[in-house]
Structure to design on (595 residues):
């Protein structure tokens, strides 16, 4: 007969319990426990008997394995309701997790796809800083009313220049009415390694149609890489159209584009005035020469006329150079061979084991990311559900126990 | 070449064996548990509820639930009898709660002042005194008596069903017996 652990219970209690167990087992007990033993025997003998009809009925139900059970179980419907609740809660949690994961992945994907534009703006920034004071000058380029020609003096004094980058196909047109503006652009393109030559030819064709000049070019093709550089001079009147065409080549895509402009109206005016002054001086000297009578006076005037003509030549050259800068815009174009995935999107690449492995690793990475995000979203929901379940169970247990106290 | 077709020993048994043998094992365990516990469960439930019709319903319900959950039984968490009485206890307590909600009049306990012809007068009196004392106990203590003397549980099983420690269960049983003893002596 199992004995109680006497170390954790009062000895008198333990002895009484042992006496009860001994009585029920039919063993003799000490006379001190005669009363308790008698009560125990009477209680055990007074166990309610199962009514034969009920016993027979229950036996049959068990025999049928409760197949046609007509029991008045009040709980199944409620249990189904609860299981429906938990099922709905689980589905809701999973749905929320899926939505969050998809949203986050989509957001991440958007960030990834916007990487090229970030890169473009990065190059824009560097170009702007190299051009100097771009931030303040850019608005003047974009909106003439913010920098009217009448106030251009200060712009000219500060050697106003601007550099900005715009989306491909939307060339900037600085306000040129009455102003002398030097424009320029830089275009970085990417093309499949085997299309560098085609891109170069397209560029040559466009420059030819625009009556421009290829001042310098360098095309390298072969192997996995390849690149091309062009220094072009394009009539400023057709710069916008030319840039649009260069930005929409068949075999290249724009990586970045930088447009720049510099107002040289004051510089141009100074050169014009210097030329006019030099010409006026020469005219005056020629008149004085005609009236000169002494040899020394004639020699001196001829020397001054030579200086004035040299000055005129210099000023004229400066003016011509400025006119050329205004009339022809410098355009720098670089073409870089791009990597395989972009080539595939262009339809010029193939499908190999390397690309498959790359794609597979990408898919696995994305799947792992989605799983991680889903887990992060599900965990708090699961914790809340577990807490609700625990609280619900505790309340149910407590209510059941309270039922005993109320009877 | 002639090859006699010889079937290995035991193949016939394998081929004719029911595919649901593994499932029948749980059924056999349940059936054995039912046979050994039916009367104990009924006695416990009736002592607790004091209403034969409700006791029958709850007993049947407890066995049905046990049958449905028989595969979820985990022996590491206790013996099958304690598990079964836990189910019966929950069903009985739910019945008590339901009664409280609907505020129905609970049937008066049967008149226990009955003595069989074979009992002596003194024994009959003592028996009546014990029955009356038991009827006066609150449900929580009546439950302990039912589990111990009507369901025949050990103190360890009693503790497992009540969800308390074994020493705690022993103390509760001791106090209940002391109450009964004092009530019986007072009657005498």
């Amino acid at each position: 007969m199992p004995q109680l652990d006497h170390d954790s219970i009062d000895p008198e209690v333990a002895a009484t319990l042992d006496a009860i167990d001994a009585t029920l087992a039919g063993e003799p007990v000490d006379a001190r426990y005669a009363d308790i033993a008698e009560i125990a025997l009477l209680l055990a003998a007074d166990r309610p008997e199962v009514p034969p009809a009920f016993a027979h009925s229950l036996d049959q139900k068990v025999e049928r394995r409760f197949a046609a059970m007509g029991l008045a179980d009040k709980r199944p419907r409620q249990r189904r309701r609860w299981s429906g609740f938990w099922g709905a809660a689980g589905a809701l949690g999973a749905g929320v997790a899926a939505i969050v994961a998809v949203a986050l992945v989509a957001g991440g994907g958007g960030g990834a796809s916007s990487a090229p534009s970030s890169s473009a703006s990065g190059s824009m920034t560097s170009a702007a800083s190299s051009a100097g004071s771009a931030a303040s000058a850019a608005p003047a380029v974009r909106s003439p009313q913010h920098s009217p020609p009448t106030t251009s003096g200060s712009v000219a004094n500060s050697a106003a220049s601007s550099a900005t980058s715009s989306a491909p196909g939307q060339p900037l047109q600085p306000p040129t009415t009455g102003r002398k503006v030097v424009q320029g652009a830089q275009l970085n393109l990417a093309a499949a390694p085997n299309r560098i030559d085609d891109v170069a030819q397209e560029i040559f064709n466009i420059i030819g149609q625009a009556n421009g000049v290829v001042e310098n070019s360098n095309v390298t093709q072969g192997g996995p890489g390849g690149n091309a550089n062009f220094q072009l001079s394009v009539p400023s009147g057709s710069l916008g159209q030319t840039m649009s065409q260069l930005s929409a080549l068949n075999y290249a895509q724009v990586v970045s584009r930088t447009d720049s402009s510099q107002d040289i109206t004051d510089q141009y005016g100074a050169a014009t005035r210097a030329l006019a002054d030099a010409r006026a001086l020469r005219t005056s000297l020629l008149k004085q020469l005609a009236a000169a009578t002494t040899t020394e006076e004639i020699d001196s005037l001829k020397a001054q006329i030579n200086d004035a003509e040299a000055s005129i030549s210099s000023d004229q050259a400066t003016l011509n150079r400025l006119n050329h800068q205004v009339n022809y815009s410098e355009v720098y174009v670089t073409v870089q061979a791009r990597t395989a995935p972009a080539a595939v999107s262009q339809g010029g690449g193939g499908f190999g084991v390397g690309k498959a492995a790359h794609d597979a690793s990408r898919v696995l990475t994305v799947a792992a990311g989605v799983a991680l995000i889903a887990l992060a979203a599900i965990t708090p929901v699961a914790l809340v559900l577990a807490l609700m379940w625990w609280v619900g169970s505790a309340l149910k247990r407590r209510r059941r126990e309270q039922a005993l106290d109320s009877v | 070449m002639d090859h006699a077709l010889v079937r290995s020993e035991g193949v016939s048994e394998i081929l004719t064996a029911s595919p649901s043998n593994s499932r029948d094992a749980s059924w056999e365990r349940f059936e054995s548990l039912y046979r050994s516990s039916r009367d104990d469960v009924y006695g416990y439930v009736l002592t607790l509820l004091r209403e034969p019709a409700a006791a029958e319903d709850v007993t049947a319900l407890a066995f049905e639930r046990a049958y449905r959950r028989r595969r979820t039984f985990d022996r590491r968490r206790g013996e099958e009898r304690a598990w079964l009485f836990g189910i019966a206890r929950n069903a009985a307590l739910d019945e008590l709660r339901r009664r409280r909600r609907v505020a129905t009049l609970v049937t008066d306990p049967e008149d226990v002042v009955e003595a069989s012809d074979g009992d002596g007068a003194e024994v009959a009196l003592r028996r009546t005194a014990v029955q009356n004392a038991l009827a006066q106990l609150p449900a929580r203590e009546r439950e302990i008596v039912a589990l111990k003397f009507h369901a025949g549980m050990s103190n360890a099983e009693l503790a497992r069903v009540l969800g308390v420690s074994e020493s705690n269960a022993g103390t509760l049983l001791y106090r209940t017996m002391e109450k009964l003893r004092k009530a019986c002596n007072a009657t005498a």
Remarks:
- Residues 6-61 of chain A form one domain.
- Chain A has a mean pLDDT of 76.
- Chain A has three domains: 6-61, 70-113+377-407, 117-268+319-350.
